[in-house]
Amino acid sequence: MRRARNLLLTIISAALFALFLDKAPELLNGYWQRILNLIAINAILALSLNLIYGMTGMFSLGHAGFMAIGAYVSALLILTPAQKNAMWILEDIYPWLLHVNTPFIISIIIAGLVAAFFGWLIALPVLRLGGDYLGIATLGFAEIIRILITNTPRLTNGSLGLKGIPAHTTLFMSWGCLAIVLLCMVCMLQSNFGGVMKAVRDDEVATKMMGINTFRVKVLAFTLGCFGGGLGGALMGNLITTIDPRMFMITQTYNILMIIVVGGLGSVTGSLIGSVLVTTMLEWLRFVENPITIGSINIPGIPGMRMVIFSLLLIVVIIFRREGIMGMREFSWDIFFPKRKAKPKESDSYSGPVLEVKNLCLKFGGLTAIEDLSFNINHGQIIGLIGPNGAGKTSAFNVISGFYKPTSGEIKFMGHQIGGLRPDQVCRAGIARTFQNIRLFGNESVIRNVMVGARIRQKYSWWMTLLPFIFTDVIREDSTVRARALEFLSQLGLEDVAHEKASSLPYGAQRRLEIARALATSPKFLLLDEPAAGMNPQESEELMKFIRRLRDEFDLTILLIEHDMKVVMNVCDYIQVLDQGVHIAQGTPEEIKANPRVVEAYLGKGAA
Amino acid sequence: MNLNIFIQHFINALSLGSLYGLVAVGYTMVYGILRLINFAHGDIFMLGAYFVYFATIVYKLPWAVGVIIAIILTTICGLLVDRIAYKPLREAPRISALISAIGVSFFIENFAVVVFTGMPRPVVQPKILMEPIIINGDIRLIPLGILVPVVAFILVAGLLWLLYCTKPGLAMRAISFDIETTRMMGVSVNKIIALAFGLGSALAAVAGIMWALRYPRVEPFMGMTPGIKAFIAAVFGGIGSVPGAMIGGLILGFVEIMSVAFFPTLSGYKDAFAFMLLIMILLFKPTGLLGERLEDKI
User: Fold this and answer.
1) Who's near B214: CB < 8 A, 6+ residues apart?
2) How many CB pairs under 8 A join A and B?
């Protein structure tokens, strides 16, 4: 009902806008038509950079380079042999290139694909870097692309650039491309795959533990973003009709960055609003560079002033309102209507220990975190892992869940060797965990957090999310996942806050949400890192009940680290004790309480 | 290539490399402390060169006086940048400060266009620095080519002394290790950060002045490419390490000069070498030559 209403409203407004574009040539002069075109092109560029940076969290400064590729590819495909012969005066054009000629639409699609291919090529080495290094490396690549264009005159006519590109970019063309890009992007972001991208942005480590190969997700988002960059560049070339390497300097990237920062990183709506504002402002600011005559007074234009104002605005926005206009919110028709509420199970045959750890060692250089640890965990047990600070408990978790490679020794899960697997592979095998320092995807809603956990059990592939109305698997699987997520949330008492931002939850609720998210990966074995940390006695009482219920209802085996001895002694069937990386004791809670070595480890020699 | 030409290339590479190194030191200090790429650093370098131009050509001051004034003014500019554009963002996500840095860089460049105009301007070259010395009858050396690396090495040695033998230096190293703990030890963190910006800017000013002497001219965008290259040199040497920045700068200088010297056809690609080096080092030794590993705690 609500969906149908919103869809209808969207179609009506799109139709109205199309009608406006149809009449635009009569209503508006050339200057305003050009601005409208630029808005659409900038919006495509901003959306694609936002996909890379705002949605997936990769700081890329290479967009100008991909625009250059797009603009050149498209122009080379459109120009006629006669034009090419006339333009290449320094050196002859490659003969194979001379006669290549395609229609405009094909040329811009190929432009996008070539840019995407280069993006993919670049992504493989560069995306292994994080944060700022990525920014510098992509900036470098954009610069290399520009240098290549300047130095390959037979291909690109070098620094002379290309002229006389037919002005194919009409209002319908630019806004039509924007509409398609927008539709695909919104569909993708609304699918659970979109949630996975944002999860990578908010916490890559936790996403890995949800069984996601985050590197693949990043490469994909980057490549798709580059497609948008190439497409935007091609449209730009066909609007301005002349291109040369100097057009694609870093300033181009800054302009797009400005748009997405002003609009709000991670918001599609923000990118659209940002494109309108920044494009109009940049055009409007041209007046400060032109001489003005008011009556008899002549004010000379000030060259460079436009960019001074522009950069000052960028600084002011980032200092005083760094979330931009929209933050991470999106426009929705719902704001015009009063709110309403929404509404919404599974087992294996293997006998033998669920987890076998044998002679496990973990060393960091000279430091031994875990020394010769061996223990078995049987199906359906709740095992406590205790020990004083620095005993190696979390390190043991990190080895089991794949964040550290064991130095030696083996870890078997359900009879299969898992030591040395990547976190996402460990998760796929059926092990889920929570983190001591809560690692939620803070900017996402509670339910989206849980849904990311369920992504690995979904069958649809990312490209289907571009056209969910054709590949209805996307919609069907997502709604199943959503329903299950709600079920988990209601079991943990979080159903009322399902649509709140995860970071806005109180601490205890965030801990429970982490458990719900871990459960969504359908694990057989659950690692809980200090689940009772920060809880009051009543809350930890509830937690104990809940942990037992978890085991019974989900048929789980649970290993937990905990400092709250009351919780450990009450809930655990069996306890393993570590001290300074050495396994010093194991036994039932009663045995552990009476064990002098344990008391000594906690309280020091002589206390026993 | 005969010995004479090779020596000239060698000196040339040494002085270009030490200029990169001087600028890189400023990047590495700020990055080591704040994990921020100070994009405006290259433009601070440009300001240094412009201040000398104004002092010597416009206000006709003696060259040496002009240089001192320029260094002081540039340092003040560096401090202002930190105070206005970075300090309000200390608690913000790092990426915000990075965007602010891009904004500042963009601002300084265009402000320079407005105030100084986009036209390149000539620079006074003191005669004593330009008069070639002839050794062995055929090896010609320009004193400037020797002066640049000597000055650079003295300055970096001084900086190392400051970092490792004085209290503020100790505080600076402590901050780069753990800013919160250092604050709790009673160190005025913001003052030390300002010190890092001030020192970095002063070194960038010296580099900018010597750069302008080499190419005898100044223009508003002259800091852009050397700035990015110097940052790459800092990454190459291991970000956060001062000796690393100097070594990275020298390697970059040698790669640029020598590859063009031996393969003249590559001259069009000169500006791409730095980025190639960057990709290589990040793939094979992401911490750089002398860098330490930074890890995310799980």
Assistant:
1) B15, B16, B19, B144, B148
2) 128
In terms of CA atoms, which chain A residue is nearest residue B86?
Answer: A319
- The residue ranking higher by pLDDT, B186 or B49, is B49
In B, residues 201-240, which contact A (CB 8 Å cutoff)?
220, 224, 228, 231-232, 235
The ipTM is 0.84
CATH superfamily of A353-430+526-608: P-loop containing nucleotide triphosphate hydrolases (3.40.50.300)
Which chain A residues are Cβ-neighbours of B279 within 8 angstroms?
125-126, 137, 140
Residues 461-520 of A with CB under 8 A from B: none
Looking at chain A, the number of H-run helices and the number of E-run strands are 25, 12
pLDDT in tens, A229-274: 999 999 999 999 999 998 998 888 988 998 998 898 889 999 999 9
Assess whether the region A2-291+299-334 and the region A353-430+526-608 belong to the same CATH fold: no
Q: How many CB atoms lie within 10 A of CB B189?
A: 18
User: Is the CB of residue B296 less than 8 Å away from at least one CB of chain A?
Assistant: yes
Tell me the helices (H) and strands (E) count for chain B, helix number first. Answer: 12, 4
Q: Structure pTM?
A: 0.78
Q: Which two tokens stand for residue A85?
A: 């012969």
> What is A436-522's CATH number, 3.40.50.720, 3.40.50.300, 3.60.15.10, 1.10.10.60?
3.40.50.300
Pair A312, A258: CB distance under 8 Å: no
Dihedral pair phi/psi, residue A502, rounded to 5°: -60, -40
* Nearest CB to B235; choose among A133, A141, A147: A133
φ/ψ region of A241 (left if φ > 0, alpha if ψ in -120 to 50, else beta) reads left
CB contact under 8 A, B102 and A136: no
Per DSSP bridges, beta strands A431-433 and B121-122 are: unpaired
Q: Which of residues 235-274 of B touch A (CB under 8 A)?
A: 235, 268-269, 271-272, 274
Please report which residue ranges of chain B form alpha helices under DSSP H: 3-34, 41-53, 63-81, 94-116, 127-130, 143-165, 167-177, 179-184, 189-214, 224-237, 242-262, 270-284
pLDDT score, position A219: 94
> Where are chain B's structural domains?
3-222
What element of type H or E holds A386?
A: strand A382-386
Compute the nearest-CA separation of B125 from chain A (Å): 29
pLDDT in tens, A135-181: 888 888 898 899 899 988 888 888 888 988 888 888 889 999 999 99
8 Å CB contact of A302 and B98: no
Class of domain A2-291+299-334: mainly alpha
Query: Do the chains contact at A147 and B269, CB–CB below 8 Å?
Result: yes
